[in-house]
Every structure is written in structure tokens, then in C-alpha cells.
Design the sequence.
């Protein structure tokens, strides 16, 4: 199998866009290497945020930030679902879903990361349970969905169809969409396919599934920052197969020997979990020791990455932003995100400057980092207030 991700050596992998213009910026402290498109828009809403305590503080912005004053930023209390079930979406696949919060509230669907990561109870805490009808579901092959770790009939377009089937099953006319990491990829793809069904978007840790993003994380780029975490991932693969780690892991994750699958899955998962937080999180890293979780996580991720996300072109999601430009959206991005580097969020921001863009200065990738969690809650609060104001 030809690998689409291994044409670049680590030294040639770049995190930075190639051309820049400062014509729309008034903040003199903004880096001279920043770029925007040549189109002129009345507002560029990028904000730089610093979270050095549990109470987030805005330290610099391109606007006054007054629209954010008074917004709740703390996670909501732990809640339990009021209903749950399984929806058969094909002859092969059945997906798990659940609802929590207000049964008569504004619907919001949570799209988990990975792909293959599944949902967890903490995902409910980003939303006001008195206002939102919170829908979580496990994508094909992940979490409680069956068959576990299954790659057949498992593509981005299958998942988009599943989201629609779930919306119709729950009799929801339209809903807010929330997704981080791979969830942001799926949220963009779903919204571009069904823009009339989306009332608002909250995106975190933008991942566009482009070749340079896969090269950065899986072909040696991020190893420059995490060499200690990279070496176990690298060393599982013999030297004569290291020209393409995506291919080498694909071979092992799909072989006939279950122990070989598990070993590859553990190495793949630990590499991501060790790099997902700015400050390493032991509980997150331990997920790599869970063979059940790791197998779905690694197999499904590798399957999607080997197949270029099943997108027709490398820039597909960027090329179709016009379809969703009218949707009220917020992008939250950790400055030091190694898994989904800020170049992708920045590229989306350049073609979609109407979306609020929140850069958390002291955070990495995970939605559970304090600064990112605070901005995600605030983004949902902002949309909540706009919906209330429009009633």
C-alpha cells in the first residue's frame, strides 16, 4: 500500500504558513510572521488568553473583549443521562447514544475525537444542563458502539450519515455542533454537508487531516519536542520499515495475531496520550495500557489517516468554508498543541475570519486543560445568550 504521509523528512516539515500580510491588524504586539487573506473583513476576532490560575484571565486581544465579560467559564457539575440507547445505522453497525440536561432544551451534539476515542461522562460538563439538551454518541467502532474496532463501512461519510440518522431518530430539527480534534474535522465535514441543520459551531484543536498534519505527528516532526515519547513509538517498527510509520502500524494493527495488534495499539495510543497535554497527565497516559480502548483508538485512527480521511482533496475542508460562513462559530486553540498544531486553526481563521478565534496561551491539545475547558464553556455560554436573546 502506498503511504501518502511519508514524502517529507522531519527536517522538511513546517508549521508555518508561507506568506503573510498585516493589513487587518492593529495590535503592534502581534507577530510579524502572522498572515491573513487579502479579503478585508470588518472584524478579526482573535483573542490571546492566559490561564495561570483556575480563574481565566484575558491578557491581550484584538478587541476589547467586553462581549466575553460575565460569561461562565467553569465546567458544569457532573450529571447523568436521562435517556440512552442504541441505534442501528447499517446492517453491520450499531451506535450508542445518550441524552442529558434539559429534555426541552436547545439540542447540542458532541462529536468525540480520535477517530475511535469514544465519549466519556466529562463531555457533558461543557454545557449548561438547564439550557441544553446534550446529545453524546460513540462513532462507529468506538466506545459502546458495535462491532468494536470495526473498520468495515467506517468512513467520514458513513459517520456524517449516522449523525443525520441520530438527529432524525431523536426528532431534532436542527442542533448546535461541538467537536474537538478529530471531532472538529467531523464537525466541519458534517456542517458543510448539512449547513441548514446547524445552529452554531464550537470547534477545538482544529484538525483538517491534511498530509502535512499527519507527517508532523506520525512521521517524526513532533519527535523534536517529545523525543522520549517518540522513541517507544518508533522502536516498535524495524528500521527497514520506518520510511512510513502509518503504513508500518497499519500492517500490525490489521494482522491476524491479536497480541501484535495490541502491542501496536498500545504504542500508538501512548504516543498520542503522552503529547496531548502541555503538562503530562498520568490518567490520560494510562489509557494506553487499556487494550480494549487502545485497539479501537489506534485501528480506527490509522484507518482514517491511511485513507486521507476519505476526503477528495487535501484542502477539502478549507475549500468548502463558504458553505458554513453564515454559521455562528467559535474556534478554541491551544498555542502549544503538538497533536493538532495551531497552523491548522490559523489556516481556518484566515479563510473564515468571521468565526471567533480564541488562542489559549498556556495550553496544549486536550479539552480538559483548564484554559481550553474555560474557553469551551464560555463559547457555549455565548451561543446560549444569543439564542435566548433571539427568542
Sequence:
Amino acid at each position: 500500500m502506498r503511504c501518502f504521509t511519508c514524502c517529507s523528512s522531519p527536517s522538511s516539515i513546517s508549521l508555518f504558513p508561507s506568506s503573510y500580510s498585516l493589513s487587518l491588524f492593529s495590535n503592534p504586539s502581534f507577530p510579524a510572521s502572522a498572515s491573513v487573506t487579502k479579503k478585508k473583513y470588518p472584524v478579526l476576532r482573535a483573542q490571546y488568553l492566559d490561564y495561570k490560575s483556575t480563574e481565566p484571565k484575558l491578557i491581550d486581544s484584538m478587541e476589547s473583549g467586553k462581549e466575553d465579560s460575565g460569561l461562565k467559564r467553569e465546567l458544569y457539575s457532573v450529571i447523568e443521562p436521562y435517556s440512552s440507547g442504541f441505534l442501528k445505522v447499517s446492517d453491520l453497525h450499531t451506535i450508542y447514544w445518550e441524552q442529558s440536561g434539559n429534555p426541552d432544551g436547545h439540542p447540542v451534539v458532541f462529536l468525540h475525537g480520535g477517530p475511535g476515542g469514544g465519549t466519556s461522562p466529562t463531555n457533558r460538563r461543557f454545557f449548561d444542563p438547564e439550557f441544553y439538551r446534550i446529545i453524546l454518541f460513540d462513532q462507529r467502532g468506538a466506545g459502546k458502539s458495535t462491532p468494536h474496532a470495526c473498520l468495515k463501512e467506517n468512513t467520514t461519510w458513513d459517520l456524517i450519515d449516522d449523525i443525520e440518522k441520530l438527529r432524525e431518530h431523536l426528532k431534532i430539527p436542527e442542533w448546535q455542533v461541538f467537536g474537538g480534534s478529530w471531532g472538529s474535522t467531523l464537525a466541519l465535514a458534517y456542517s458543510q454537508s448539512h449547513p441548514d441543520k446547524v445552529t452554531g459551531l464550537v470547534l477545538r484543536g482544529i484538525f483538517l487531516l491534511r498530509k502535512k498534519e499527519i507527517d508532523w505527528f506520525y512521521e517524526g516532526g513532533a519527535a523534536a519536542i517529545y523525543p522520549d515519547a517518540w522513541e517507544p513509538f518508533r522502536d516498535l517498527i524495524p528500521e527497514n520499515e520506518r520510511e512510513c510509520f502509518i503504513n508500518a502500524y497499519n500492517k500490525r494493527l490489521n494482522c491476524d495475531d491479536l497480541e501484535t495488534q495490541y502491542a501496536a495499539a498500545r504504542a500508538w495510543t501512548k504516543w498520542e496520550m503522552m503529547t496531548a497535554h502541555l503538562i503530562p497527565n498520568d490518567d490520560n497516559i494510562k489509557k494506553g495500557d487499556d487494550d480494549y480502548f487502545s485497539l479501537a483508538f489506534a485501528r480506527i485512527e490509522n484507518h482514517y489517516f491511511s485513507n486521507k480521511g476519505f476526503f477528495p482533496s487535501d484542502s477539502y475542508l478549507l475549500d468548502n468554508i463558504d458553505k458554513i460562513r453564515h454559521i455562528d462559530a467559535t474556534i478554541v486553540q491551544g498555542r502549544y498543541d503538538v497533536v493538532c498544531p495551531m497552523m491548522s486553526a490559523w489556516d481556518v481563521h484566515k479563510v473564515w475570519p468571521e468565526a471567533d478565534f480564541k488562542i489559549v496561551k498556556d495550553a496544549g491539545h486536550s479539552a480538559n486543560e483548564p484554559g481550553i475547558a474555560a474557553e469551551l464553556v464560555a463559547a457555549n455560554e455565548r451561543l446560549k445568550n444569543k439564542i435566548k436573546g433571539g427568542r
